[in-house]
């Protein structure tokens, strides 16, 4: 069985607006530090008028993950909704230029909403605080899912943030059904602890019924099972899926499969901008397991990729990850 | 006499699309290395489809210069034309966020052309090759010049690239007249040797009649006077203006005023991306002379600012220039 895609990602398509600020700016602007908060267009306009000079780069959590897999030479596609506007063109270009197939219904120029954007504010400690105007990407529907494309995926990768869209649960269900019917596998990232608190039951149902590989970080793991014992939380989540991969910042990651588990330490690096760390982790992990790596090796690759992306401003790796893997004895 | 602005800049308003490539890509795509070439929208779309993942940052030569002066705490305004589209909003935001006053007639959403953009391709040697779709900024007219604003400028700063616009010569003439009538001074940058070859006579007339301070690099100086003796070229240009400031890459700069001249060496730095070096030079020089620096000191500041901007991707300084000046004993 040879499929066209190693991984097909589905998520919020958006362009990041990256700017630096200090902690006082965050509190003055009423921004909760370190998390993703949803904002409407008036708030986006107001906040944008207050931030300093910025740079624009394509983002979107699952899209960043797909970009990593494509940069490593994996076969990928991405489904997410942009408008036929300048930011939409930027988003589509950057994925295609990285080698990913980008296919989705394009919202027309006349659509009321615009392409989504995320005002990412980076504080001197490297933490990022995200302010997301979803725009048209909120309205990803089952019609945007092509079952034939999902059937060509070894893995699909679903972005937890997308649970904030009204029709996305149905879209995800359609994608899962099409993928599993063709013997493909399903991975999911929990994305954000506050996103989990908004959609915990829906996450739980999906994990139990249809997820083979679950990605999350420590805070998300604890939020998902509503406990404060990290080891117990991992055990509880690991029992629900085939593979569990949990990141724990500078402590690296924990991988679980059945009775086996591995703690894979990370090499400490200076954090310039944490944006995209989890996305790069998932991308390198998925690339690893679809290219013959065992789980702890995939965990090492994932740590290296995450460590690379946090050493510069911007959510997608700038370094040559293939070369980095070689330097670390991983390829 | 206290005026509202240290410097008012007039130039091509555009957003830079920055991507890396190798020399083979440039020749395959028919791009002349190291210069600015004008392209139309079909060429912009075709070229964009071929380049790798990119980042978008506000650019425009005179706008970069104004951003430097504003970042140093100078009082500035900028005149240049964008459309009421997403790239136009990005351009205006980044100048205002830097503290510059941005005022110009905004081309409406219904305008046929879009906000200008420049596809900047950076090769491994740090050289940048620019492909400019002017868009609405081509149509800056005398109506866009507010004489009252020019009268409030100690200096106006005119971008040579703007000579490519049909009505811009008249717009520049109007700005010069309003500035000089109010005892303000006029600075001009020659911008590009190929731009000079397209408009040499117009440049010459303006320099003789109305320019107090002329900025150029070595190639532009030679092209302007059509000689190949650098010292003679400087002498010829210096005779036409009050102050001449000529950059010579890693050799620093030459400043001329009347019978006096100074060679100000630069500290060697690693070149990551040469984009914006000349713009930063002019900005720091103008900030210096409007804040009490003598000419050789302003030249040192200008060298430091240019050296800072070429050490990263992007056309505007990311470092704290005020702190850099202090480190170099310049403030």
Q: Secondary-structure map with pairings?
A:
The structure is a homodimer of 331-residue chains.
Chain A: E1 5-10, E2 14-20, H1 23-28, E3 36-38, H2 41-50, E4 55-58, H3 61-71, E5 76-79, H4 86-97, E6 101-102, E7 116-122, E8 128-133, H5 147-151, E9 153-159, H6 168-181, E10 185-189, H7 193-210, E11 213-217, H8 218-225, H9 230-238, E12 243-247, E13 253-257, E14 260-264, H10 277-289, H11 295-309, H12 321-327
Parallel strand pairs in A: 1-5, 1-9, 2-7, 3-8, 5-6, 9-10, 10-11, 11-12
Antiparallel strand pairs in A: 2-4, 7-8, 12-13, 13-14
Helix pairs in contact in A: 3-10, 7-8, 8-9, 10-11
What can you see in these coordinates?
- The structure is a homodimer of 331-residue chains.
- Chain A has a single domain, classed as Ribokinase (UDP-N-acetylmuramoyl-L-alanine:D-glutamate ligase).
- Helix content of chain A is 39%, strand content 21%.
- In chain A, helix 3 packs across helix 10, helix 8 crosses helix 9 and helix 10 packs antiparallel against helix 11.
- Chain A has 331 residues and is of the alpha/beta class.
Largest interface: A-B, 23 and 23 residues
Query: How many discrete structural domains of chain A?
Result: 1
Low-confidence stretches of chain A: none
Structural class by SSE content of chain A: alpha/beta
Q: In sequence order, what are the helices and strands of chain A, one letter per element?
A: EEHEHEHEHEEEHEHEHEHHEEEHHH
| Shape category of chain A | globular
What value does the Rg of chain A take, in angstroms?
18 Å
Number of strands of chain A: 14
Quickly give the CATH architecture of chain A. Answer: 3-Layer(aba) Sandwich
What name is given to the CATH topology of chain A? UDP-N-acetylmuramoyl-L-alanine:D-glutamate ligase
């Amino acid at each position: 069985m040879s499929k066209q895609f190693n991984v097909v990602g589905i998520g919020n398509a958006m362009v990041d607006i990256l700017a630096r600020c200090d902690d006082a700016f965050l509190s003055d602007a009423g921004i909760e530090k370190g998390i993703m908060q949803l904002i409407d267009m008036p708030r986006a306009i107001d906040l944008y008028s207050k931030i300093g000079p910025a740079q624009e780069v394509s983002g979107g959590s699952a899209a960043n993950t797909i970009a990593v897999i494509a940069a490593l030479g994996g076969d990928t596609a991405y489904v997410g909704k942009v408008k036929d506007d300048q930011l939409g063109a930027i988003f589509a270009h950057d994925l295609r230029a990285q080698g990913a197939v980008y296919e989705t219904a394009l919202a027309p120029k006349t659509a009321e909403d615009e392409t989504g954007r995320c005002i990412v504010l980076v504080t001197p400690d490297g933490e990022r605080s995200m302010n997301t105007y979803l725009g048209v990407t909120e309205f990803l529907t089952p019609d945007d899912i092509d079952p034939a494309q999902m059937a060509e995926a070894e893995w699909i990768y679903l972005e937890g943030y997308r649970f904030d869209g009204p029709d996305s649960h149905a879209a995800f269900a359609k994608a899962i059904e099409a993928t599993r019917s063709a013997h493909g596998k399903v991975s999911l990232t929990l994305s954000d602890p506050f996103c989990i608190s908004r959609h915990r039951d829906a996450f739980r149902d999906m994990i139990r019924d249809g997820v083979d590989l679950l990605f999350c970080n420590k805070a998300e793991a604890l939020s998902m099972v509503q406990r404060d014992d990290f080891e117990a939380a991992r055990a509880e989540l690991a029992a629900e899926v085939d593979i569990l991969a949990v990141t724990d910042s500078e402590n690296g990651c924990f991988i679980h499969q059945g009775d086996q588990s591995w703690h894979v330490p990370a090499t400490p690096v200076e954090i310039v901008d944490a944006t995209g760390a989890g996305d790069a982790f998932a991308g390198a992990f998925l690339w690893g397991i679809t290219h013959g790596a065992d789980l702890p090796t995939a965990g090492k690759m994932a740590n290296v990729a995450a460590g690379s992306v946090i050493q510069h401003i911007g959510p997608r790796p700038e370094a040559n990850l293939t070369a980095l893997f070689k330097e670390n004895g991983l390829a």
